[in-house]
Amino acid sequence: MAATISCSFSLYSSLDTQKHKSFYYTNTHLSKSHHKLSKSSNPYLLLHKFHRHNSTFHICSSSQSPSESYFDDTPPKSSIFLTTPELDKFQILKNYGYVHEFEHGSLFAKVMEEDEMDITVCLLAESFAESMMLPLRYVNVLGFLIKQYMIERRGLMPNTAFLVGFYRGKDGEEEELAGTVEVSFNKKGSNTNPPSPTPPKDSPYICNMTVKKQLRRKGIGWHLLKASEELIPQMRNSSREVYLHCRMIDTAPFSMYTKAGYNIIKTDSILVLLLLQRRKHLMCKQLPIYSIPSSESDTSSSEDYPLHEFPL
């Protein structure tokens, strides 16, 4: 099925403003290296090293310089004064990894690094265009807007983070980017213009989850959700409530979220249809004190509609 998504920001007006500008694909050759798995509370991670092969991607890129990498030995230049708790949270993000073995392959999820931004932007732009049934010529425009959003959001780390999942099939296939998801941990990382119904700003919030079209219906979306839920307690010392949005028309992801333990808190008023938006459920789950990743995967329906709300 086609991907679906709803958005609360003025995408159409943004597209109208940008469509007369020139956007183009650029070929970027990314030199891939081994994923470095740091010491983790999960010893299973130490048994997995995923090789990222040399590949050429068509990247949706803007002229803006990439943001600083947040996983260097020094903190980001934009954050001159970092408290000890913030430094500790940066270290958690740097070391975090989530591994799951399927019968058909392996998934490794980690926090996105700067050199992985362009391929992640492309994945989101293509899924977004597909979900809104936009012509392919708008993919570059979407890529431009999404990249600006991601650069801004990465500037709020460690209060928010993008996770990326890399998949490798059992048949000797090359590792590839399979999906992504964004997690906000607290009020400092909350979006300034959240979708309706509005979630609490100081509570963790999961959004912008998508899975590559060719890899849907394999349970990858389920485990990206579980990876997010596993990371949240490590970044929070108080609230265990986590929120997300689901459009009313998206029955497949709704089934996945309810199976994962999410309940409807509030639903959009029918008046949002006047704003050319789809009605959405705000859903919430109470995470356990010690979150243990589930091995259960929903391979039958979790990838039919691979995108959460995109709160640009």
TrEMBL record:
MF annotations from Gene Ontology: acyltransferase activity, transferring groups other than amino-acyl groups
InterPro entries: Acyl_CoA_acyltransferase (IPR016181), GNAT_dom (IPR000182)
Pfam families: Acetyltransf_1
UniProt region (Disordered), positions on chain: 293-312
Compositionally biased spans, kind Low complexity: 293-304
Occurrences of domain N-acetyltransferase (ranges): 173-262
Highest taxon above the source species: Eukaryota
Protein name (Swiss-Prot/TrEMBL): N-acetyltransferase domain-containing protein
Species the sequence originates in: Papaver somniferum (Opium poppy)
